[in-house]
Amino acid sequence: MFYKTFLIYFFTILFTYAQFAEELAGPSNIKSIVFKGADELNQFPIIFFGQSVFLEFDDLNGDEKDYYYKINYYNHDWKKSDLFKSEYIDGFDNIRIENYQNSFNTLQPYTHYKLELPNSNTNFKLPGNYMIEIYDELDQLLFSRTFLINNDTAIVSSKVFRSREMDYYDTHQSIHFSIIPKSNIPFRDPENLLNVVILKNEQWSTIKTGQKPQFISGNRLEYSYDNKSLFEGGNEYFFFDTKDIRINGNGISYVNLNRLYETYLYTSPFRKNLPYGFAPDINGNFLIRTIQGTQLSDYEADYSWVHFSLAMPRSINKKEVYIYGKFNNYVLGEENRMIYNPSLEIYEGILLLKQGFYNYKFVEKDSKKLSINSISGNHALTENNYLILVYYKKFGDRYDSLVGVGKSSSFEIVD
């Protein structure tokens, strides 16, 4: 059993580190990792100086282990910076997380850990890309998450357009944007010193880079590309709500109680060839919450085995099907791989999840690539959020400052 768990963890590490930001998902006993900034509903922390980020997670072993955090600084392309730690941290890291609480009145025991940064030991000096890493008492890396500090010296305006290419008109979305320095002093050599990163729904796996200013008007940089900022529209996520773990909430067919609660979701349809239908979602995210006890979800929310099913003929290309969402940071591992049931002609999967509101979808993967929308369908009208991250390296600097962040939604897509 230990050997099998080790292999699953090892291959999860390999797949995760193939992603752009190299975030490590974590071992099987670490669950419900929530990392957020000032916006409690957004688990992609971008903060200004003076604001805080909050990291929370559960250890299902429930034995109050010692965990430590370390901070690293990265360039715009997420290559590790050659700066000394004292150049980007005021204070020190490798500090034990002291804020923890054992679960109360839950069938699944766990210890809930919470960390706030900056704190009395650790503060930040530079804007840009950071990564927090969590280690155990043996100094083994368990998981990591990225966060960004914006010094807000540029204005980024953006809109979402349908593609100008007729082949993509019904399926894709394109991001057009402009950048203006707040100081009204033009960026020096923007084609080489300014770098732009575009993300869809705060997912690093969707990243697009390499855009150069299409034209410059005074101190205004215009980016109106179509193909270079083209994204598949995808489809809205499915959702379910287990805030009351005992009853059939939204998206739930029925509930059983064994050692833990067993939550059975309605069977999801194969949507690739279905017309688009708007359904509000939170773009793959999740929110931990409970209405039981005193509603302190940190340590009173329980865990249940959530049963997923997808009505779809078995893939003729022998592709593997996975449950996909922020619940495990969009990592594909043995835990969220689905098994085909030929007698019912459905794919089935089971996940141990904490009470809350969850978005999820189903994706396919073969030996060559991951297909995000081959099961859910692809529509230009799908509501998606986009982030435009603008980095600038001043002459003489050895780091990339995050100088501006633009946000836009395809809810108001321009034809």
Query: CATH top level of the largest domain?
Result: Mainly Beta
Q: What is the fold-level CATH name, i.e. the topology of the largest domain?
A: Immunoglobulin-like
Find the structural class using helix and strand composition: mainly beta
Assign the CATH architecture of the largest domain: Sandwich
Radius of gyration: 22 Å
Mean pLDDT: 91
Which oligomerization state do the chains in this entry correspond to? single chain
Which strand-content bin applies to the residues? 35-45%
Unreliable sequence segments = 1-19
Q: What is the β-strand count? A: 31
Calculate the terminal CA-CA distance, rounded to whole Å: 55 Å
Number of domains: 3
What is the 3D form? globular
Describe this structure in words.
The chain has 415 residues and is mainly beta. 7% of the residues lie in helices and 43% in strands. The chain has helices at residues 2-16, 85-88, 190-193, 297-300; strands at residues 30-36, 46-47, 53-59, 68-74, 89-91, 95-96, 99-102, 111-117, 122-124, 128-135, 141-149, 154-162, 172-181, 194-200, 203-209, 215-217, 220-223, 230-232, 238-241, 252-257, 261-265, 268-269, 286-288, 303-311, 320-324, 339-341, 346-354, 356-365, 370-371, 385-392, 401-409. The strands form seven sheets. Strands 20, 21, 22, 24, 26 and 27 form a six-stranded mixed sheet that branches. Strands 2-11-10-4-6 form a five-stranded mixed sheet, with no helix packed on it. Strands 12, 13, 16, 17 and 18 form a five-stranded antiparallel sheet that branches. A hairpin with a 2-residue loop joins β14 (194-200) and β15 (203-209). The radius of gyration is 22 Å and the shape is globular.
